[in-house]
Amino acid sequence: MRDGFWPIRPGFPLGRCFDAVIGWGSFFHLTQKAQRTALPRIADHVAEGGRLLLTVGPADGEITGTVAGETVYHSSLAPDEYKAILETAGMQCEDFVPEDPECTGHTLLLARRKASARQKD
Description:
two-stranded antiparallel ribbon, SAM-dependent_MTases_sf, Methyltransferase domain-containing protein
């Protein structure tokens, strides 16, 4: 982990792709509109055959909750919408696990970048 690339700057593009991109406990704090915009941009940074792992909400909706006495915003798209966005971005949803008891109730979305259709030189 020490030798990894840890960009600390907002915005895209990053100018490279990664074998794995993980968004744990963060993506569901974006609005639904922001998720629709961000997901294809994030997918653009996953290398061929690479994986994307996000924690998302289990169903379409927006709610607020409380964490450590502070109000926090959560939103999610419907699972089929996540899958459609990923498909359009050249990725395939490999697994969607709502409220996984093995991950303290987090909803997991795992996707893989499809092999490129272009010919290699």
